[in-house]
Amino acid sequence: MFLENGFLPENKFWKYILGSVLIILASTIGQVPFAIAVAVKAFSSGKTYPTTNEAVMKFLSPNVTLFLLLLSFVFGLAAIVLVVKYFHKQTLLSVTTSRAKVDWGRIFFSFSIWTIFTVASTAALYYSAPENFLWNFKPIPFLILAVIGVLLIPIQTSCEEYVFRGYLMQGFALLAKNKWFPLVMTSVIFGTMHIANPEVEKMGYIILVYYIGTGFFLGIITLMDEGMELALGFHAANNLVTALLVTSDWSAFQTHSVLKDLSTPSVGFEILTPIIIIFPILLFIFSKKYHWTDWKEKLTGNIIIKESTQNSENHD
């Protein structure tokens, strides 16, 4: 069972707190090259060092900014691997899935289905209201974007999934000895971690409903499928395909994408559509393909670890 993979005799919840601090520290160190690049350009060009998040994001070229932003996740993912291996004495596989090996078919299926949906929905929006979009395609910058995106965006999304749906989900399960608490906690933390995104400033805190709802969706498919593969595929497709297809002045990633969204961001039914319509449809598709059953137990049940099992493990 996936959550039970973290129930080792030497594992304690305080280790997850300290481990999280180490992962955050590594990610922060990974942001230093970005800060240096901005400082160097400000000094060499004689420009004032940007003081707002929006100004910082636009100070360098979009591809350089994207590369340096994603670089911090390389440090973060490396920290996760080291913390899991040397601090918790677990394998990376144990925080990835309950299966004997990673099921790449699940990752690619989830990636493919969300890619198809994203491309189709973007095309529908473009043809229904072309005045809201600017054709932004420039071959060379787009090719550079594609290389950066393919190499680094899956690292970024995998880093987030390993933190929330893997590492912290097992940590909160160890603390609470049930399944609903880690689902709720990781979803809320995941959603509120997006509070600094420019979309929040433009649309208000109501957009956090979407981010938290997405966290619940990713947590549910992880618990029901006893592994992170579907979440890894979905998250990678969501960020990569969006970065390649559409950018805007108010999105988290400013990219040389195919299209630029010129519309004024607003909060309406579109915020709730994924949560109440699209995600349930995906849950239905996944549940039929992978034969999910016993939803209540897998999402809210208690976790009981036999004392004899832990004693024997400890003895070994």
UniProtKB/TrEMBL annotation:
GO terms for molecular function: endopeptidase activity; metallopeptidase activity. One of its GO terms (biological process) is CAAX-box protein maturation. The chain crosses the membrane at residues 21-44, 64-87, 107-128, 140-159, 203-223, 230-247, 267-286. The keyword DNA repair does not apply. Residues 142-241 form the CAAX prenyl protease 2/Lysostaphin resistance protein A-like domain. Keywords: Hydrolase, Membrane, Metalloprotease, Protease, Transmembrane, Transmembrane helix. InterPro entries: Rce1/LyrA-like_dom. This is CPBP family intramembrane metalloprotease. It comes from Flavobacterium rivulicola.
